[in-house]
Amino acid sequence: MKPRLLKIHSPEIESFSARRDLTPTMNSIWHYHEELELVYFKEGEGTQFIGDNISRFKTGDVVLVGANLPHYWRFDQDYFEAGKKSADVYVIHFHSHFLGERFLEVPENRELKKLISNSARGLQIQSPKLSHIIESIINTVEASSSKRLLSLLEVLFQIGSTDSELNPIASLGFKYNYLSEEQDQVQNIYNYVLNNYQKKISLHEIADVAKVSPNTFCKFFKSRSKKNFTDFVNEIRVGQACKLLIENKLRINEVCFESGFNNFASFHKCFKKVTGKSPLHYQKSFVA
């Protein structure tokens, strides 16, 4: 399973790229690039794949993805239907050495150097000053010339400060080791599961999507994703269940079947394994 290498184009007169995306199709493929990527979801919700992690993303999230870390944000179907929800995402790409090879060696930049190193696993950013971090991200995208640079430095130092809570996303042991001939397989598998998680997906069915034999698929998927296919599908289903529980429009037993589980015992077990909470306790933590 091979993520695509994307080339990020920055204007020749600028040392980094900053933009605002208003469509849910921004880089909507499993990909990686040499630049770090800082993302703020002003409006948006769906499933995020970062390294070997599968989880939900939502409005207000701020994420820093390290260099060459495969990732993919899949917006929920509501964002692709006319007249429903709209995406609004701020994205900044920059090299670790965008201010020169020796910039990070300056003693005053030790926190920034540590932040860039820790971003190798992807970081979910939480902070008492999150509103200030978000303001600086928006300023970086909307400002011009040297003000953009100052805003980017400000946001990076804010994130790297000691009072920020930086939660690693990918597992410590995740390594990118995909073969070049596996260009589109992971994308096809991800898309197929996201479109069909509500029904039973047979081994023959998914093997056909990956264009390998059923006997080969299990070993192939486990060796590349570091998890078996059943766990992968269940994580997708639990992610959808989390969304439905937060929306609080269905009873918990209805959420179970709507998410693709065929019995409540299996749903409860998988949900607690992934989230660490029962479905009811998870819902209570979001719904007053």
UniProtKB/TrEMBL annotation:
Q: Name one GO molecular function term.
A: DNA-binding transcription factor activity
Could you tell me which SUPFAM superfamilies the record lists for this protein? Answer: Homeodomain-like (SSF46689), RmlC-like cupins (SSF51182)
Q: Give the HTH araC/xylS-type domain ranges.
A: 187-285
Q: Which domain of life is it from?
A: Bacteria
Assigned keywords, A-Z: DNA-binding, Transcription, Transcription regulation
Pfam family of the protein (one):
Cupin_2
- What Gene3D superfamilies is this protein classified in? Homeodomain-like, Jelly Rolls
The protein depicted here goes by the name Cupin domain-containing protein
